[in-house]
Specification:
Blueprint: E1 9-14, H1 21-29, E2 33-39, E3 44-46, E4 51-53, H2 56-63, E5 67-69, H3 78-87, E6 91-95, H4 103-106, E7 112-117, E8 125-126, H5 129-135, E9 140-147, E10 157-164, H6 171-195, E11 210-211, H7 227-236, E12 244-247, E13 250-260, E14 269-272, E15 275-280, E16 283-292, E17 298-299, H8 300-306
Helix pairs in contact: 1-6, 5-7
Length: 317
């Protein structure tokens, strides 16, 4: 039977990531779908003042009077499972949710349990596919739509949509490009899945690669690396966690850098001709903006005036 007669398709959406906000809002507006509930992670205290902050997708749900659920551990929340079963969703959709669903949850939807992932699967399963693509110098990435399984990002794939990666792009820019791509392609993909729910292709596990959850410490610079590697980190870890070294025992963020051709010993700081340069394995980087821990960001000229012993020294690697 052709399932297009069932429109609007009912959806329970699971996400806490900003990357999912555009497609979530599009599905709410689209007359071919009916979003019944949002499941997201519990709110967490953020910043020094530990303020409880709602996610963007949660604010969108509130604005559109969508029911919101925030289980600590979804697979052990039997009460919530019962509520969702009563909704009888056609689609269960996850996108940057952060928890793996068990078998009972995967069987809730009448058409399919779908996961949206920001990579070309099976490449970069895991938590940081956007950053991994930039760090590894990939020329393309994309959005994969897969049937969910109990293993992370391992289910058979329905569709893959690819885009080129600009060599100068930052992670936050690529994040937004992929978010908008998902918004544009997911509604039609869901209709195609409804018509042929078994038209998926298994991933080749032998080709799978994985990317970890990023920690603040990942931004620590090793000046024994090539300048291009440091630049890739700068682009991949922008805006968080950023790249940094240490000076006088404090974290020193490098907020704006570019590659220079001068040959300088790795980690050595040179201040000349209105520039601040740090040596790498194959050249150097020029630092334009810095921020020492608990202080405001400064142009390199101003920073040097206040920290004159920063020049002509080696930084840790």
């Amino acid at each position: 039977m052709n399932n297009t007669k069932k429109m609007p398709y009912s959806i329970v959406f699971l996400s806490s990531g900003d990357i999912a906000a555009p497609v979530f809002e599009e599905l709410i507006k689209n007359v071919d779908f009916s979003v019944k509930a949002l499941i997201c992670q519990p709110n967490k205290a953020q910043g020094r003042e530990k303020v409880m902050k709602k996610s963007l997708i949660q604010l969108i749900a509130e604005r559109n009077e969508i029911k919101i659920f925030q289980p600590e551990n979804i697979s052990s929340d039997n009460d919530l499972l019962k509520i969702i079963k009563e909704i009888k969703p056609d689609f269960l959709i996850t996108f940057a949710y952060g928890q793996i669903l068990n078998k009972e949850w995967l069987e809730v939807s009448s058409i399919a349990a779908i996961n949206i992932h920001a990579s070309i699967l099976p490449k970069y399963r895991g938590a940081s596919p956007i950053q991994a693509a930039i760090l590894n110098g990939d020329r393309e990435t994309g959005i994969s739509i897969m049937k969910m399984e109990e293993k992370m990002d391992a289910g058979p794939v329905y569709f893959i949509h690819k885009i080129k990666i600009n060599e100068n792009i930052f992670a936050y820019m690529l994040h937004d490009e992929l978010a908008n791509l998902a918004r544009d392609i997911i509604p039609d993909d869901l209709k195609k899945i409804a018509e042929t729910p078994h038209s998926f292709k298994a991933q080749n596990d032998n080709e799978a690669t994985y990317c970890k959850k990023i920690k603040r410490e990942d931004g620590f610079l090793d000046f024994q690396s090539n300048a291009s590697t440091i630049m890739s980190m700068f682009r991949a870890y922008n805006p968080w966690p950023g790249i940094y070294t240490t000076f006088r025992g404090k974290r020193l963020k490098l907020l704006d850098i570019e590659i220079e051709s001068d040959i300088i010993p790795p980690g050595y700081v040179v201040c000349d001709e209105d520039k601040l340069k740090i040596g790498t394995m194959d050249g150097c980087i020029s630092v334009k903006q810095l921020q020492i821990e608990s202080k405001q960001s400064l142009h390199h000229n101003v920073f040097i005036i206040g920290q004159q012993d920063f020049c002509n020294r080696y930084l840790p690697s």
